[in-house]
Amino acid sequence: MRKLFLLITTLGLIMATGCNKPSESTNTAGSGGGKKLTIAFMPKSKGNQYFITCKNGAVKAAADLGIDLLFDGPTNTDPAKQNEIVENWITLGVDVIAVACENKEGISTALRKAQAKGIKVITFDSDSMPDARSFFVNQATATGIANVLMDTAAQLCGGEGEFAIITATLTANNMNEWRKNIDLRLKEKYPKMKLVETKPCDDQKDKAQQETANLLGAYPNLKCVMAICSPAVPGAAEAVKQAGKVGKVKVLGLGLPSENRAYVKDGVTQAVILWKVEDLGYLTIAAATALAKGELKPGATTFKAGKLGEIQLQGSDIVLGQPFVFTKENIDQFDF
Ligand code: RAM
After folding, report:
1. Nearest-atom index, ligand 1, CA of 168
2. Nearest to 283 by CA among 24, 60, 7
3. Is the CB of residue 260 below 6 angstroms from any atom belonging to ligand 1?
4. Which one of 9, 20, 165, 334 has the largest count of C-beta atoms within 10 Å of its C-beta?
């Protein structure tokens, strides 16, 4: 009985400590000697499968490189909460903060404050203002992503007709850079295609579904929906399916194979485009570690990113690679 009581008390204590702890922490075995680095890693939102996959890569890198990883972020997109977490990490005195920014300008003040306290800062997935961080780990160039999106949309529409975009938020730098470059490609190459509207969905599948349903009602000649944030791709597909417009309105976007497999197989979604998301998390932690150790300095042209090998820099951008197109034919080969 006493043993049972002790067990319950201990479990209660562990749970209470867990609840009060602001960030999840992954302790990894150090490579021996010296103080272990603590790298704090923040997604745009913790509930988004895309960032859960990024985190898996970050955890692997932490184990490979022998650093302690803190992981925290808003449950859903929330720029104010991101600022609050950065402030907590400043108080904690972490070595590096790595963040996917929801609001480019909004978060930069807090990141500058971290830098002023001697904390190194890098961004990944979605950048801050350039002076608020040392490096940005980019999944692929904005032009590369925009061109493959726009070229695929034009191909699906036979080079003409109306299309609409579902974006995440109007404050996230990655979304805005991609939108800007989609516009450029559209003007340059596809004069017969018309972008009717761009609607934000706050990185929420249900909101993307609702916005797509509204667009289908407002534009009866719509030929294609381009969803440029991962939760929006299955959301747009579901709306097209429920409106009975499968095949008539094409769906494409930046999404995870796992969240879109069924829609792709059923012919609702024609193309899903993405990069190796786990590697984005891995590369971010590798860059953060190299930065903290003084192995990656401003002006560098390459650096060694653990198991990913030597990575090229473009100015202060560390670019992971090229976007990839998943279709009915190849989607089964990918399990993320
Ligand atoms: C969402 C996020 C993220 C973006 C992906 C494609 O998960 O908005 O920033 O890179 O989509």
Report:
1. 8
2. 60
3. no
4. 165
Question: Is 232 touching ligand 1 by the criterion CB < 6 Å?
Answer: no
Closest of 61, 50, 56, 77 to residue 273, by C-alpha: 50
CATH architecture of structural domain 33-138+277-320? 3-Layer(aba) Sandwich (3.40)
- Each residue of 83-102: b (16+ CB within 10 Å) or e? bebbeebbeeebbbbbbbbb
Query: What's the pTM value of the predicted model, to 2 decimals?
Result: 0.91
Instruction: Please report, as a single letter, which amino acid is at residue 330.
Output: N
Q: In the chain, where are the structural domains located?
A: 33-138+277-320, 142-274
Distance 181 CA to ligand 1 centre (A): 16
Pocket flag, ligand 1, residue 168 (CB < 6 Å) = yes
Per-residue tokens: 173: 């730098």
Per-residue pLDDT of the chain (336 residues; tens, 9 = 90+): 333 333 333 333 333 333 334 577 776 544 445 789 999 999 999 999 999 999 999 999 999 999 999 999 999 999 999 999 999 999 999 999 999 999 999 999 999 999 999 999 999 999 999 999 999 999 999 999 999 999 999 999 999 999 999 999 999 999 999 999 999 999 999 999 999 999 999 999 999 999 999 999 999 999 999 999 999 999 999 999 999 999 999 999 999 999 999 999 999 999 999 999 999 999 999 999 999 999 999 999 999 999 999 999 999 999 999 999 999 999 999 989
Decide which of 3.40.50.2300, 3.20.20.30, 3.40.1190.10, 3.40.50.970 is the CATH code for 142-274.
Answer: 3.40.50.2300
